[in-house]
């Protein structure tokens, strides 16, 4: 794997740290700005709002900008947003800073995924993308606990300052390690938006919103589940969340090779196993060791699904994969909001702290149904190849109509759609 993937992993590490560290620092932020903890919780929504809006907006604005330059611009916005968060004098400005910090999130991942897939041979594209995602999973093991501890000991502003420093490191790494990747002659926002009209892209985004909603329905309430039902102390929940991150890392490591070999079967199996694991957690949450094992498995399965969803969207967006890849992260944040809302509904209805696990399992099953529907509708399509340039394929490189249908998520080399 090229060293340039390390730069993309550093970006993902910083994004993962800033996205989740706020959740562990809400009491400190509330005390520091003289607001209630629930009111401080709106900062999590502020970041998510930035992701949902920023992914398509910044990807569209940067549709004609070469990928390396766009990555540098986005990482600069990431730095400014987190530096502003560390310096914000009041809640209103901190809210605005968190929106700003979230704006480049989806675009960084979307452009980064396309860049990563172009750095390697076609049959290793998913492994390259999953290597970038390793930065996100490692953030859950190291970055989020370290940021939370730093904020608790020295003050919440130091946590955001540390993330801003990671942003500087990411900028330098991108500038030194990422090669120049020119855009095609047909690049542009309208070209990207036309690719988004693809039926398979829309089904893929719906699959991400609903299917990952099942994961977030549980993850959002994992800490109170552990303290109320498993009997784990508040101080120990950070270690359990780190264990969850270990599971995510293992899932990411195996997702790349599996997706390169068989995209849709990996996606189907991931959702089916996730639904089963969420049901298992419902029955094991009151028993420490089984619960910890199942939580680790859930972390692995959530990561296992991420790569094939990302590669599917890049595949089906044809000549303009960047907008689809970025919009996937808007879908993740919609899943975060919707899953947390549904999980909170069943808890508030008196169904018990373990009830979000069953809601999550139901959403995972629906996500599986959407994925299978997409596969059924795609059964007669030509061979799928991830296109990593905005230029249209030369006529001699287009897939043959007689080619057998399959879902190999392999990017073509620069300048074409790859042979059938």
TrEMBL record:
Compartment(s) where it occurs, according to its Swiss-Prot or TrEMBL record: Cell membrane
Region Disordered, residue ranges: 387-420
Molecular function as annotated in GO: transmembrane transporter activity
UniProt-listed InterPro entries: MFS, MFS_dom, MFS_Efflux_Transporters, MFS_trans_sf
Gene3D superfamilies, per the entry: MFS general substrate transporter like domains
Keyword flag Transmembrane helix: yes
Cellular component aspect of the GO annotation: plasma membrane
Keywords annotated in UniProt: Cell membrane, Membrane, Plasmid, Transmembrane, Transmembrane helix
Topology of this chain in the membrane: Multi-pass membrane protein
Keyword Transmembrane (UniProt): yes
Positions with biased composition (Low complexity): 399-411
All residue ranges annotated as the Major facilitator superfamily (MFS) profile domain in the record: 2-379
Membrane-crossing segments per the record: 42-63, 70-89, 95-116, 128-146, 158-180, 201-223, 235-255, 267-285, 291-313, 334-353, 359-377
Protein name: MFS transporter
């Amino acid at each position: 794997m090229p060293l340039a993937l390390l730069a993309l992993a550093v970006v993902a590490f910083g994004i993962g740290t800033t996205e989740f560290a706020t959740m562990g620092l809400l009491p400190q932020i509330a005390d520091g700005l003289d607001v209630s903890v629930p009111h401080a919780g709106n900062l999590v929504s502020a970041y998510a709002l930035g992701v949902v809006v920023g992914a398509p907006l910044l990807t569209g604005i940067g549709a004609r900008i070469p990928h390396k330059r766009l990555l540098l611009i986005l990482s600069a916005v990431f730095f400014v947003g987190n530096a502003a968060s560390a310096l914000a004098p009041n809640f209103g400005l901190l809210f605005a800073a968190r929106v700003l910090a979230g704006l480049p999130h989806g675009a960084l991942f979307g452009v980064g995924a396309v860049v990563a897939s172009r750095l390697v041979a076609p049959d290793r594209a998913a492994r390259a993308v999953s290597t970038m995602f390793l930065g996100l999973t490692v953030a859950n093991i190291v970055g989020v606990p370290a940021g939370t501890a730093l904020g608790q000991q020295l003050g919440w502003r130091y946590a955001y300052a540390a993330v801003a420093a990671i942003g500087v490191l990411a900028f330098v790494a991108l500038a030194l390690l990422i090669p120049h990747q020119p855009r095609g002659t047909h690049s542009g926002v309208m070209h990207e938006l036309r690719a988004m009209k693809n039926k398979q892209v829309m089904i893929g985004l719906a699959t991400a919103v609903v299917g990952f909603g099942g994961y977030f329905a549980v993850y959002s309430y994992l800490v109170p589940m552990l303290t109320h039902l498993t009997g784990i102390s508040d101080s120990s929940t950070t270690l359990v969340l780190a264990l969850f991150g270990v599971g995510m890392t293992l899932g990411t490591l195996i997702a790349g090779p599996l997706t390169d070999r068989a995209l849709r079967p990996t996606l189907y199996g991931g959702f089916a196993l996730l639904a089963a694991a969420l049901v298992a957690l419902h029955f094991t949450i009151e028993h420490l060791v089984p619960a910890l094992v199942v939580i680790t498995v859930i972390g692995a399965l959530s990561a296992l699904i991420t790569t094939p969803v990302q590669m599917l969207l890049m595949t089906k967006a044809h000549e303009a994969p960047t907008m689809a890849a970025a919009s996937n992260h808007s879908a993740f944040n919609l899943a975060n909001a919707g899953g947390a809302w549904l999980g909170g509904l069943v808890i508030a209805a008196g169904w018990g702290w373990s009830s979000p696990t069953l809601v999550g399992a139901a959403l995972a099953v629906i996500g599986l149904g959407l994925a299978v529907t997409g596969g059924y509708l795609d059964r007669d399509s030509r061979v799928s190849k991830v296109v990593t340039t905005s230029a249209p394929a030369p006529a001699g490189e287009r897939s043959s109509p007689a080619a057998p249908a399959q879902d190999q998520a392999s990017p073509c080399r620069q300048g074409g759609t790859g042979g059938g």
